Structures are given as C-alpha cells and as structure tokens.
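ESCALATION

Customer reports they have been waiting on this structure for their group meeting. Please prioritize. Original submission:
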Amino acid sequence: VQLQASGGGLVQPGGSLRLSCAVSGFTVDSRAIGWFRQVPGNEREGVSCISRTKDSIYYGDSVKGRFTILRDNAKNTVDLVMNNLKPEDTAVYYCATDCVGYFTNSYYYPGTIWGQGTQVTVSS
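Update from on-call: job pushed to the front of the queue and completed.
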C-alpha cells in the first residue's frame, strides 16, 4: 500500500502547478484521499479532500476558488490542480488517505496512510 506524490516545483506567483498522487495497493474509490501541506516549524494544514463516494469535496479556506481536487479511477490517481499560486502556498505537499475526519472534525484517522512529500515553491 503506497501513495506517491509528484509534480512539485518552482513557479512564479500567479502561476499554476498540478500535483499527482499515484496510489498502489488499493483503489482510489475505496478510501477518501486528500492533500495536506506543511511549512517547517508550522502545523500541517489540510488543503483538500475527496470522499470515497465523491459526494463530498473539501477545501481549506486559503485555497478555495484556486485549487481543484480531481480523482481518476482509471489511472488510480488523485490530482491537485493549483492555480493563481501565491508565495504563501509554498510548502511540502503530502497526499494521504482518510482525510474527511480532518475537514469535518479536525482529527486524523489513526490508520491514515501518508505519501512522501513534494516541494512546491512559489517565488519570483
């Protein structure tokens, strides 16, 4: 069981990036999957989450209207499309399972599986 995040990089303010979370060992429609980010010294922040049934999608307040989470069952991936990036979006981004609890009740499910991070840097 593994989540592999990719797609990070350096982008100018106002630019766009697309992160991808490739899942192996289970299907993306069997668990909620989402994205979190963390800046060294700060708490981890929830960015977005898509529920198992896709009937619930969550976004952190700071990214609403700019980021979109997309699930591709055929490719077994969950992508994060990030538009109008700002310097404050700079962080290491992680994909993870079982994210609904964080967005609804601010808790992490004990069985959460985390991928390795991918660095996003927004700078001119």
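Sent to customer with the following note: Strands lie at 2-6, 9-11, 17-24, 33-38, 45-50, 57-59, 67-72, 77-82, 91-97, 118-122.
Escalation resolved.
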